[in-house]
Task: inverse folding
C-alpha cells in the first residue's frame, strides 16, 4: 500500500506527466538549423528542398515539419540562425580591442569564412524567391550590426584612425548598404567577381573614404602583409 504522500505524487504524475522530450526537441531543432544553414549557403535557398535536408540528416521529412511547418518558416529561422551566429563571432572579435582598422579586416575574414556558396548566390536566391524573409532578415542584420559599425567608427575617431568630421550615423548606414549591395549578382556577376574580392575592394574603398593618414598607413600595412 502506498503512503498518502507517494500516492499523491503518483496521481499528480498520471495527471500531469513530466515531459522529457523538451531538451531533445531543442537539440533536433538546432541540428536542423545547422544542416539547413550549411546547405542553403552552399547550394542556395531555392535549390535545397526539405527532402534534401531530411536525407542529409538521416531523418524523416515529417520530423522537419514538426519543427518548421513550411519551408518559408525554415528559411526565415535559418537566416536568423546564421545572422546571430555571425553576430556572436563579430562580438568575440570586438572583445579583443584591436585597432579599428585591424578589427574591420578580421571581421571581413570571419564573414568570408562563414558565408560560402558564392557561386550559387544564396543571397540573390533569398532576395528573389523569399522577398519577405529577405526584408525581415535585412532589418535584423542591420539591427545587430549597427552597434558594431558605429562603435568601430567612434573608436577610430577617438584613436586618430578616422577623420573627426565624418557623420557617424550616415557612414555606418552607407557601410551597411554597401555590404548588401556588393552581393547583387546582376551588378557583380560571380563569373567576374568573387565574393571575397568584392569584400576586399569594398572595405578598402570604405576605409580610404574615412581614414586619416595614420589610418591609411595602418590599412596599407595590413594589405601588404596579407599579400606576402
Result:
Amino acid at each position: 500500500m502506498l503512503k498518502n504522500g507517494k500516492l499523491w505524487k503518483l496521481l499528480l504524475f498520471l495527471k500531469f506527466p513530466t515531459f522529457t522530450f523538451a531538451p531533445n526537441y531543442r537539440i533536433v531543432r538546432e541540428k536542423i538549423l545547422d544542416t539547413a544553414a550549411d546547405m542553403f549557403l552552399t547550394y542556395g535557398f531555392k535549390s535545397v528542398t526539405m527532402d534534401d535536408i531530411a536525407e542529409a540528416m538521416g531523418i524523416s521529412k515529417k520530423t522537419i515539419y514538426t519543427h518548421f511547418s513550411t519551408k518559408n518558416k525554415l528559411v526565415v529561422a535559418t537566416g536568423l540562425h546564421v545572422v546571430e551566429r555571425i553576430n556572436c563571432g563579430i562580438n568575440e572579435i570586438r572583445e579583443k580591442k584591436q585597432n579599428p582598422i585591424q578589427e574591420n579586416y578580421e571581421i571581413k575574414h570571419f564573414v568570408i569564412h562563414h558565408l560560402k556558396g558564392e557561386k550559387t548566390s544564396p543571397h540573390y536566391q533569398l532576395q528573389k524567391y523569399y522577398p519577405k524573409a529577405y526584408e525581415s532578415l535585412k532589418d535584423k542584420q542591420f539591427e545587430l550590426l549597427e552597434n558594431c559599425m558605429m562603435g568601430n567608427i567612434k573608436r577610430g575617431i577617438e584613436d586618430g584612425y578616422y577623420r573627426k568630421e565624418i557623420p557617424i550615423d550616415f557612414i555606418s548606414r552607407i557601410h551597411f548598404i554597401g555590404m548588401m549591395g556588393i552581393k547583387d549578382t546582376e551588378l557583380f556577376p560571380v563569373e567576374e567577381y568573387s565574393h571575397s574580392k568584392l569584400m576586399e575592394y569594398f572595405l578598402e574603398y570604405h576605409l580610404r573614404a574615412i581614414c586619416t593618414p595614420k589610418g591609411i598607413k595602418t590599412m596599407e600595412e595590413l594589405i601588404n602583409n596579407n599579400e606576402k
